[in-house]
Amino acid sequence: MPQVQVSVFGREGGTGGWAWTGGRADAVGEEEVGRTMPGRAELFADAGSLARGVGERLRHAVREVVDHQGRPFYLALSGGETPRGIFRTLAESPFRESIPWERIRFFWGDERCVGPDHPESNFAQAKRLLLDPLGIPEGHIFRMRGEDDPEAEVLRYATLLREQVPIGEGGIPRMDCIWLGLGQDGHTASLFPGNAIKPPDEERICHPAVHPESGENRLTLGLSLIKQAGEIWFLVVGAEKAEVVLDLFDRQGSYRDYPASLVTPRNRSTRVRWLLDREAASGLNQEGEP
């Protein structure tokens, strides 16, 4: 089986020779068209190392856009447990000073249908842990209005995206970077198994969603917009994610039911990165682990 080279980062940010072996990158059948083979895998010793890795990669990505294109950097944040530690790390030195925060425009990959001050709001979490500590101006923040009617809000947000974000292939806004999480059921953003990929939602850049277990209403970016991004970063932490990570990397088990398997780049210029901590990557066959 082919060997996929990955980078490994230790507690102090050092690199090692850890490689993942497995998968069937050279054996994609017709039934696999439109499903992801994970892109570059970057493995970290723990959640803290991963958070610092996100900071380093974000600093580089923003500098690339600002220095070479002279425009703002368009970033869609994720919610949930994993980004909390990342937000805290980014709001502290050295990233507080080294990332040109004033050039970033903030959007969201998904949101719960709650008010902006609600403890379950993805926006509220980012505001408390990242945006307020950094003093980000309100004019650089473009949140989903979870308190409004979902159908009306997805139309408003889609219009806002088209007005604010550079337009790419097919007339779809092209974010510079979208952060995605990964659920134990293989969901990502608020694209859930069984209700994520139904037409016409597949081509909508933003649409309502319903959590299949809680019945909670949500808003989410659609696959067409996610696939268009310049970079797509899956941020995955914890042993409870190991099985779904293995299924996706090795294309086994129930991976076809995972919405994350459908996050395929729209074109060759899109880069997919998987940032995994040691526990999330524990199911992979690793060689040369430091």
Write up what this structure looks like.
Strands 3-2-5-13-12-9-6-7 form an 8-stranded mixed sheet, with helices on one face. With 290 residues, the protein is α/β, with parallel strands linked by helices. The two termini are 22 Å apart. It is built from 7 helices and 14 strands. The longest helix is centred in the first third of the chain and has 23 residues, at 47-69.
Radius of gyration: 18 Å
Strand order of the largest sheet: 3-2-5-13-12-9-6-7
Provide mean pLDDT, rounded.
86
Roughly what fraction of the amino acids lie in strands?
Answer: 15-25%
Instruction: Report the end-to-end length measured between terminal Cα atoms.
Output: 22 Å
Q: Residue share in helices?
A: 25-40%
Instruction: Characterize the quaternary organization of these chains.
Output: single chain
Overall body shape: globular
By DSSP, the count of extended strands is 14
Q: Report the order of strands and helices.
A: EEEEEHEHHEEHHEEEHEHEE
Which regions are unreliable across 5 or more consecutive residues at pLDDT < 50?
1-5, 11-34
